[in-house]
Automatic annotation (TrEMBL):
Protein name per UniProt: Probable quinone oxidoreductase
Protein's UniProt keywords contain Cytoplasm: no
Record-level GO cellular component terms: cytosol
Keyword NADP recorded: yes
Keywords, ordered alphabetically: NADP, Oxidoreductase
InterPro entries cross-referenced by the UniProt entry: ADH-like_C (IPR013149), ADH-like_N (IPR013154), ER (IPR020843), GroES-like_sf (IPR011032), NAD(P)-bd_dom_sf (IPR036291), QOR-like (IPR047618), Quin_OxRdtase/zeta-crystal_CS (IPR002364)
Gene Ontology MF: a single term: zinc ion binding
Coiled coil location: none
Pfam family, one: ADH_zinc_N
UniProt domain Enoyl reductase (ER): residue ranges: 18-330
Length: 334
């Protein structure tokens, strides 16, 4: 490895299961790369709710576990068999272990080269939007193909994915019904394309959905909340409606009998982004769409706040408090 690359780096990791006390900011070895891998010096990393699932033990992982799911940065070393990237290339990528100064990653995978001399602002924007925008793009095209005139129920509508879903649903000529816990969040959702607003802390979500849809229910629901909203979502769907469940913010959905879907011929999906971008062609298709939408300003990525890497514990508390809107970003020390 180059003498310019240190042997140790600063990372954010968890060393156990529990509260914020298991989050540590400490020295950790810089990974060694194989002949087919890249070493990326990270600049920005996006904060995602999924990190809390690992910390709380909802998703198992070996400890210590370096957190992070996406980042932007610069290639600083490459294996001898790598031909598609050069040292100095700026990149955006989806990977584990991005809450770190350096991440190793295969040269073939969920990584894209950014235009030369991409600005710092754009690097931050791509880090903020990559994972969530690709999630929203693939879900609205494949989990449920949103069509003109559809009524779509969106939970956590002022969160990172929610704000993007609002915009994409509106672009497709459908009606976005936003659910959030405060009027302030709902106003943000409205600015980002939501047509109908439901305050879950003051209103009966199901009653409002039926009022908005003249008793029919919604064509589809994108539900990232999980246990607490499952029954409401099931009841809010119209005949032949599609239930897209993709998060566990309130806990795992208890086991259910599949026959409960029969009365209205409900389709229930539990999609994950990675299964939609497995093939290189799929990755290119969705990343090209993402870059085009962001660069043309048709899609706006709202950044709530940028935190220093060492302050991830604060960011984790903020995102889990349900007080944030849009995306939280970490700035990696250089």
């Amino acid at each position: 490895m180059s003498r310019d690359i240190p042997e140790t780096q600063k990372v954010v990791l968890i060393d156990g299961v529990g509260g914020y006390d298991v989050i540590k900011y400490e020295d950790y070895p810089v990974p060694l790369i194989s002949d087919k891998e890249l070493l990326i010096k990270n600049k920005y990393a996006g904060v995602n709710y999924i990190e809390s699932y690992f910390r709380k033990g909802l998703y198992p992982c070996e400890k210590p576990y370096v957190l992070g799911r996406e980042a932007t940065g610069t290639v600083v070393a490459k294996g001898k068999d790598v031909n598609n990237f050069q040292i100095g290339d700026q990149v955006a990528y989806i990977s584990n272990s991005t809450f770190a100064q350096y991440t190793k990653f295969p040269s073939e995978g969920t990584i894209m080269r950014l235009p030369k001399c991409t600005s710092d602002e754009k690097m931050k924007l791509y880090a903020a939007g990559l994972l969530q925008a690709l999630t929203a793009l693939s879900f609205t095209n494949e989990a449920y193909h949103v069509k003109k005139g559809d009524y779509i129920l969106i939970y956590a509508a002022a969160g990172g994915v929610g704000l993007i879903l609002n915009q994409l649903v509106k672009m497709k000529g459908a009606h976005a019904i936003a659910v959030a816990s405060t009027d302030e969040k709902l106003e943000t959702a409205k600015k980002y394309g939501a047509e109908y607003l439901i305050n879950s802390s003051k209103e009966d979500v199901l009653a409002r959905v039926l009022e908005i849809t003249n008793g029919e229910g919604v064509d589809s629901c994108f539900d990232s909340i999980g246990k607490d909203t499952f029954e409401t979502t099931l009841a809010a769907l119209k005949r032949k409606g599609v239930f897209v469940s993709f998060g566990n913010a309130s806990g795992l959905i208890p086991p259910l009998s599949i026959t409960r879907l029969s009365p209205k011929n409900i389709t229930l999906l539990r999609p994950q982004l990675y299964a939609y971008i497995t093939d290189h062609e799929e990755w290119v298709y969705y990343t090209d769409k993402f870059v085009d939408l962001v660069d043309s300003k048709k899609l706006n990525i709202k950044i709530y706040k940028t935190y220093a890497l060492k302050d991830y514990k604060v960011a984790a508390a903020d995102i889990e408090s349900r007080k944030t809107t849009g995306k939280l970003v970490l700035e990696i020390p250089q």
